[in-house]
Amino acid sequence: MNIWIKRAYAALVFAFLYLPLVVIAVYSFNASKYSLAWKGFTLQWYVKLLKNDTLMDAAFRSMTIAVVSATVSCILGTLAAFMLHQYRFKGRRAVFASIFVMMMSPDIVIGISLLVLFLGVGLSLGFWTLLMGHVTLCVPFVTATVYSRFKGFDPTVVEAARDLGAVEYQVFRRIVLPMAAPGLIAGWLLSFTLSLDDVIVSFFTTGPTYEVLPLRIYSMVRLGIKPDVNALSVVMITITVAAVLLSRRLLKEKS
Amino acid sequence: MTQPVVTLDGVSKSFDGETAVENVSLSIKDGEFITLLGPSGCGKTTILRILGGFEECDSGAVELDGRSVRGVPPESRTVNTVFQSYALFPHMNVFDNVAFGLRIAGKTEAEIHRTVDEALKLVRLESMGRRMPKELSGGQQQRVAIARAIVNKPRVLLLDEPLSALDYRLRKQMQKELKELQRTLGITFVLVTHDQEEAFSMSDRVVVMNDGRIEQVGSPREIYEEPTNLYVARFVGEINVLDGTVTGRQGESYTAEVEGASVLVKARREFADGDRVHVLLRPEDFRVEVMKDLEESPDLAHKFAKALLKGTVDGTCYRGATYDVDITLDDGKRILVTEFFDEDSETLYFHAGDRVAVGWFEGWEVILPHEG
Amino acid sequence: MKDSLFKRLVVSGVLGWLVLFGAVPTLMLLAVSFLSRDPDNLIKPVLSLSSYAELFQPALGAMLAESMAMAATATLLCLLIGYPFAYVVARADRRYTRTLLLLVMIPFWTNTLIRTYALVAVLKADGVVNKLLLLLGVVDAPVKLMYTPTAVFIGLVYTLLPFMILPLYAAIEKLDCKLLEASRDLGASRFSTFRKITIPLTMPGIVSGCMLVFLPALGMFYIPDILGGARTMLLGNYIRDQFLAARNIPLGAAASVAMTVIMGLMLALYYKSVRRAGRKVRI
Question: What is the C-alpha separation between A194 and B76, in angstroms, rounded?
Fold first, then answer.
């Protein structure tokens, strides 16, 4: 098949994917409030964004929860990956399967089932329930990322360490962890991004006491286009791009 | 004279500016087993792929049964390939793999059953029809690949280093089987390999290639005993290269100064006085006797009148059926001699430090013009 | 050899988390779906199948069916658009594959809410699409795209397309070129090769791509909220409304269970396709 047809098709799909984002980006720098007509380059919307306390507060909360949940997910996910890779134990296959299923589960099922759990136990929705929600969402992804990193290891390295006298915990801390470090950081970054961008799970697991950015945006955009939301979108996209680029660079050694 | 089944005429091919094949011309006879032999990068696989239809040559003509195959895609050629990695379809069992080509061609199920069973019997895998490729050993997978190719009754079967993934013993066995198969089927086989022994054991003719060009085409014996240049001589087996200068003519032979000694040599080409030459000798072509023995026995000395070069033994190496002797000639050149154990000398005969006289079996030498 | 303390802690910790946040919520959800509704306390501990019965009511059934149809169509469209695209990227020059993949990943990781919001700018009356249509003279007046089922449909395909492309890419990339050459060598045309070799061997990618599109397409309630009119409702909207507005927890739970069952069926399909393609199931 003609190479130019292939290229044209790929370009078309890319255009489809990126057009709306480009439009929003253009809007965010456009002095005109609502229309596409170019009225001059401006940063006023970004300034307005910074002055918007509600949005900034929500952004801060989002960042906080993203950092915390990414860290917790990273720890838990790495331990899970280590456990699956290194140990033989009863139900290993079941654990594999469970994590795979959790990764594939649609957000709404995760959100609803956690909501039922929280209601059943009597927890009030807020920071802690949101944290639990995000961790549940992110851990499978971290586990998968770190696990495939582990799989690329030379197993004799661990054996050498044990031959030299290291016990379990030391093997983990001094050998496995440093070698897997890039995978860990990549996992952290992916969790961070997932948490920052999550809408549905947050919707069901947080309460009015801890409103995060996506939910704030959600209530705002139901009413139409807003200039400062444009600026906010550009900022968020930039953060996402940076995180993805960084994690790709870290995972570069492994295919 | 029957028409060759494949002709290549002035075929050249480059990839990204790098020449893979340069001006190659070759005629392949119907029903022969021909091998393209050479190191990696010499262009042999490229030629195979051109024949299979996976690459188009940049210039030159390729004909199959007298008709040009330029622009003809692989699926339309009566040529089948056995891939180096076997390329068995992992989602089909052995039977379906072998039947694939027949099904595409639209043959009836009854005929397919018959033909596939025949092919499987031929490669000795009759009971394996239901198995999946991943359940088979390397050797078995390879036989499925062969069955899958031959079942379509191609005019030419192309084999891309088919035995390279097998262990030594299995490889030797498969070489015999492939040769037998070819004889039974009568199909033209074109095999590609870098293993000289493999090429020799199976082929009617061998094409020695280097750097995109053909160096020599001939039967295994011709290639081994009469190499046309140093490259071919060196690529196939061990070779000793002595240097010399032609000094004159004596009937059908030439006189020459070789490694400091005056010798009489037979050559196929014409040489003039003063031409510099290489004298090529295989390790088994030499005759060596310890000096002391010659001095002690005039009989032996007389028989060994042709022992023209003198040297010292550096060491010996036991090889089981033979033993190798490393010798440094008086003028500094180092040679390798292979001696056979026989009833007369059951024990290792030479020792490091022995002074020896070296000659060779008359007429076994090959004279080539000096290269560089 | 006795298990070290470290090992026991790790194993019990991870398993504990899995049970607490994986198994327990799911079981509770299942349990709740079989209970009855209580106006005051939300749930009455009385077993009943009324929730499931209601799911199959005609009015509800129609909405559900519509939601499934829309999700299925969106999935199909993503597949038709995404497969050729993934194929081109997978077979592209080594030098470009990295960059191309990255360009696909960026929309994948970007907040879907923001991407949906960005669509509004494109689809509204004075947005890019209408401006283009007017410019080209295809229409005389701006076409009403916003607040229609079409907009929801476009929104679904737009946000979920990357989710289809990435698994497809992974599966196509794994395909051994030599198998395709072997197929053609044996006489199969390009099209036959595609049908008999490429499709079956990339089936795991196709199924997981469909899973990653179909299930969210049922659940992403904010897309109809932002782009659709009052009529368009996805299964996700329905579940949310039951939980938050109607306060009919058992019904909402039943609907969620239905969704989980669909997911289970798709997972079984995925497993089967992997086995058939001759590979082992991996994360």
Answer: 51
Q: Where are the domains of chain B?
A: 6-234, 240-369
In chain A, what is the greatest distance between 2 CA atoms, to the nearest angstrom?
71
Partner C contacted by A4 (CB < 8 A): no
State whether residue B1 sits within 8 Å of chain C by CB: no
What distance in Å separates the CA atoms of residue A64 and residue A31, rounded to the nearest whole number?
32
Residue C200 forms part of a structural domain: yes
Q: How far does the CA of residue A77 sit from the closest CA of chain C (Å)?
A: 8
Number of domains present in the structure of chain C: 1
Residue C74 in any domain: the answer is yes
What are the chain A neighbours of C220 within 8 Å (beta carbons)?
A: 108, 200
pLDDT value of residue C84: 93
Choose the mutation target among C176, C185, C196 for the interface with B, i.e. most B CBs under 10 Å: C185
Report the pLDDT value the prediction gives residue B348, as an integer from 0 to 100: 60
Instruction: Map out the domains of chain A as residue ranges.
Output: 1-37, 52-253
In B, which residues are within 8 Å of C185 by CB distance? 52-53, 74-75, 79-81, 149
Asked if residue C174 belongs to a domain, the reply is yes
Query: B192 in the Ramachandran plot: left (φ > 0), alpha (ψ -120 to 50) or beta?
Result: beta
Domain B6-234 in CATH 3.40.50.300: yes
Give the pLDDT confidence score for residue B233 in this predicted structure: 92
pLDDT at residue A165 tops 80: no
Quick check: is C26 in a domain? no
CATH number at residue C141: 1.10.3720.10
**C281: pLDDT confidence band, cut at 50, 70 and 90?**
very low
Q: Are A213 and A58 in contact (CB under 8 A)?
A: yes
CB B27 within 8 A of CB B214: no
* Residue the block writes with tokens 């289809």: C164
Mark yes or no for CB contact B104/C192 under 8 Å: yes
Q: Please indicate if any CB of chain C lies within 8 Å of the CB of A167.
A: yes
CB C168 within 8 A of CB C82: yes
B39-94 pLDDT, tens digit per residue, is: 988 999 999 999 999 999 999 999 999 899 998 988 889 999 999 989 999 888 99
Q: Tell which residue, C219, A130, C245, A208, has the closest CA to residue A219.
A: A208
Would you call C102 and A95 a contact, using CB atoms and an 8 Å cutoff?
no
| Architecture (CATH level 2) of domain B240-369 | Beta Barrel (2.40)
- Residue B128 gets which letter from DSSP? G
Q: Which residues contact C40 (CB under 8 A, 6 or more apart)?
A: none
**Residue whose token pair is 């180096």:** B84
Which one of B73, B101, B133 has the shortest CB-CB distance to C186?
B101
* Residues A52-253, CATH architecture: Orthogonal Bundle (1.10)
Range of the domain at C235: 54-276
List the single residue in B80, B85, B133 with the smallest CB-CB distance to C185.
Answer: B80
Q: Which of C185, C187, C197 sits opposite B89 (nearest CB)?
A: C197
Has residue A152 got a pLDDT over 80? no
Task: Kindly provide the b/e burial profile for residues B222-242, where b requires at least 16 CB atoms within 10 angstroms of the residue's own CB.
Answer: ebbeebbbbbbbebbeebbbb
C283 band by pLDDT with thresholds 50, 70 and 90: very low
Q: Do A222 and C11 touch (CB under 8 A)?
A: no
CB proximity C185 to B under 8 Å:
yes
Beta strand residue intervals within chain C, DSSP E: 36-38, 42-44
Chain B: partners with 3+ C-beta pairs within 8 Å: C
Tokens of B343: 């009833």
Q: Which residue of C has its CA nearest to A119?
A: C42
Q: Sheet containing B286-290: which strands, arranged edge to edge?
A: B286-290, B355-360, B309-318, B322-329, B334-340
Contact C185 B85 (CB under 8 A): no
Q: Assess contact for C225 and A215: CB atoms under 8 A.
A: no
C151 versus A154: the higher-pLDDT residue is: C151
